[in-house]
Design goal:
The protein has helices at about 20-30, 60-65, 85-95, 105-115, 125-135, 140-155, 170-190, and strands at about 5-10, 35, 40, 55, 70-75, 80-85, 100, 120-125, 165, 200. With about 210 residues, the protein is α/β, with parallel strands linked by helices. The strands form 2 sheets. The chain has a 6-stranded parallel β-sheet with strand order 2-7-1-8-9-10, with helices on both faces. The N and C termini lie far apart (about 40 Å). Mean pLDDT is about 90; it is low at about 190-200.
Length: about 210
Amino acid sequence: MNRPGCLFILSGPSGSGKTTLKQAVLAHFPDIRYSVSATTRAPRPGEKNGRDYYFITEAEFRAGIDAGEWIEWARVHGHYYGTSAAFIERVLARGRDVLLDIDVQGTRQILKRFPQSIPIFIMPPSLEVLRNRLEERGSETDAALERRLTDARAEIGQLQLYRHVVVNDRLEEAVSDLTALIEAYRSRCRSVPQEEDPIHTSGNRA
């Protein structure tokens, strides 16, 4: 390939279906490299080191901060999360496309260094639907659920960072919208400057 790779960013509130859509993208485009984040939190049941996250100690993470290892990082609920700068730069330089699954704060940091990135926000059809999805998980206390909804409102308030919004109402349609969007950028073999590309919304609202 004679071009640098494209950097795709997926963001969205907890319960938006972002993880499911990410997995669908990686299944549809097996040549896209997924950037696995590092974290200092303990693995959850079923999570595997190197697949879901790189699980490292806080001392290792802080050493990475001092060394400039993280292209973006944040401390969330007492734990550090970060994305390797070296991995992204190496893969993009080889002409391979990269997919990131990060929050709004991380997106803002990434765009400062890679303004040609393609940030895509995964939107629930409504906050009420989002609440129902979180309740159906059965894993949230009332306080945790309200905190996630508050965080969702704050994230949705930052849509100006994103080139595209995909509304995840019906999963099959959201997958189709998202994969078509990514395919369009890949076929163009270049990124359009962010300021010249307004937000577009895909998907059916309830």
